[in-house]
Amino acid sequence: MTLKLDERRDKQVKSTILTNQKTQPEQASNVFEVSDLNLWYGSDQALHKINMGIEEKRVTAIIGPSGCGKSTYLKALNRMVEMIPVVKTSGSIKYRDKDIYDSKFLVEDLRAKVGMVFQKPNPFPKSVYDNVAYGPRVHGIKKKALLDDIVEKSLKDAAIWDELKDRLNENAYGLSGGQQQRVCIARALAVEPDVILMDEPTSALDPISTLKVEELVQELKKKYSIVIVTHNMQQAARISDKTAFFLNGELIEFAETDDLFQNPKDKRTEDYITGRFG
Ligand SMILES: Nc1ncnc2c1ncn2[C@@H]1O[C@H](COP(=O)(O)OP(=O)(O)OP(=O)(O)O)[C@@H](O)[C@H]1O
C-alpha cells in the first residue's frame, strides 16, 4: 500500500517535470557564492558547512523537512539572521563577488538588491499604492509622476495591475490573501532588486492564488534571480531550475531540478522526495 502511494507520488512529480520549461544551466552565472557557511543560534548549530551558489535569472528551490535550516539559509543571504542577537556565523557569503559581511558593504544596500517575500502576506496597513511606493519613497523618490510609474510597473510585473488598477487607494488589508501576496511581491519589485528570496510564499494561499504566484515566478525569472523555500515538492519540480535538499542543517544534494527528482544521487534525497520520511 505504502509502495503504491510512493509510486503514484513519484510519477506525479516526474510528470510535472516533463511539462516544465527550464532555463538551461549554461546561461547562468552566480549571483551568490556561499562557501563553508556555518551558523549557530547560541550553542545550537543550524547550518553545517554549506557550499552553494545561486545562479542568475534562474529559480533555485530549497526543500527539506521542517527544521532542517531552509529559512535560516535564506535569511543568511540578506543578513536578516543578524536581527537575532544570538546568531553567529563562519564561512563566506559573496553577493556579486563582494563579501556581504565586509564592513564596507552596507546592509541597506544589500537588502535593496536582495528583496524578500514571506510565508504570510505582510502588507502594511496602508493603501495598495502606498505599500508599493514605500520602498522608492524611502530611497528618496518624491515626484508623484515617477512614483505613479513605479507603482504601475511593479503591479504589472507582479501580475496584479488589472485586478487592482481601480483600487489603488484601498487599504491592502481588504484584499484577498493571494492579492496581498502579489502586492507584497510588487512592493519587493518596486526597489528594483536583483534577487528575490521567497520563504514558502504560497503556503497560506488557496490553489488558484498559488497557481498565480507560481506562474508569476516563471515570468519574474526572466529579470530576477529567485530563491524559493517550499515544503511542496511538486511546486519545486514545477517552478524551479535547480533544487537543494537540506537535512539537519546540511546540504545533502544540489542539482538541476530534473536530475534531483528523476535521478537523486543520495539515498536520503530519494527517501525524502518519494515521501518515505519528512
Ligand atoms: N530564532 C531562532 N532562535 C533559535 N533557534 C532557531 C531560530 N530560528 C530557527 N532556529 C532553529 O534552527 C533550526 C533551523 O530552523 P529553520 O527555521 O531554518 O528551519 P526550516 O527548514 O526553515 O523549517 P520549517 O520548514 O519548519 O520552516 C531549527 O532547529 C530551529 O529550531
From TrEMBL:
Keywords, alphabetical: ATP-binding, Nucleotide-binding, Transport
Keyword flag ATP-binding: yes
GO molecular function: ATP binding
Domain ABC transporter span(s) in chain numbering: 32-273
Entry coiled-coil feature ranges: none
Entry-linked PANTHER family: ABC TRANSPORTER I FAMILY MEMBER 17 (PTHR43423:SF1)
Stated name of the protein: Phosphate ABC transporter ATP-binding protein PstB
Organism: Halobacillus amylolyticus
